[in-house]
Amino acid sequence: xxxxxxxxxxxxxxxxxxxxxxxxxxxxxxxxxxxxxxxxxxxxxxxxxxxxxxxxxxxxxxxxxxxxxxxxxxxxxxxxxxxxxxxxxxxxxxxxxxxxxxxxxxxxxxxxxxxxxxxxxxxxxxxxxxxxxxxxxxxxxxxxxxxxxxxxxxxxxxxxxxxxxxxxxxxxxxxxxxxxxxxxxxxxxxxxxxxxxxxxxxxxxxxxxxxxxxxxxxxxxxxxxxxxxxxxxxxxxxxxxxxxxxxxxxxxxxxxxxxxxxxxxxxxxxxxxxxxxxxxxxxx
Length: 284
Prior knowledge:
By secondary structure, this protein is α+β, with helices and mostly antiparallel strands.
């Protein structure tokens, strides 16, 4: 008698039986996961369409507190889309204008790759933006397969802050703030500064799924919705695997990632996968 145990997010299958039974139940389980995923995608599309229909008659334009907050720049929002330049957006952030998770701004790299940057977190210190889909090409977390130096010593960190940063529009590069981030290096928690970064596994997943990154950060509200963990290989493309900044605890060759279904996983660091753009703009 054989035994099978499979887990995908909150779904789990436990079954004992013959090899035929195991195979049949495995196929049925993965078909169920696929159907749930398709239903989620359909529901999201229907919700977005309803929102567009409801808002079609009313263009939500806000000039932030003209008389009350004299001197503060106004940022125009239409259905959550930020219409100002990046200089105007940064000025508004520093002047105390309210931004909300879900606000977004469209743009493109200097070589023409489109992207949508979404507000994923707002704190007392900064507004955080992340690309809704991945940007750039596939890249190895670390070409030599090692992770002992942690994320700051990886090839993927260099790619983000040199190759990819330089492909962002100049007006955007000028307003990105230096972010202080935490990572594990040889089992020790260390801090480092960076302009572009990858999310940590503990920001994206709960403690059961962050593979040894517990306590580094808390799961962000934005990522509690699995659909927000699903990113396309580029804007408008199919969902893909994308890298995180974390290393799997106890397995030095393995780095953490997010699957195309928005689930936690990991792969050898020498494998090439996609990355998003993540940065902050400080309030002061």
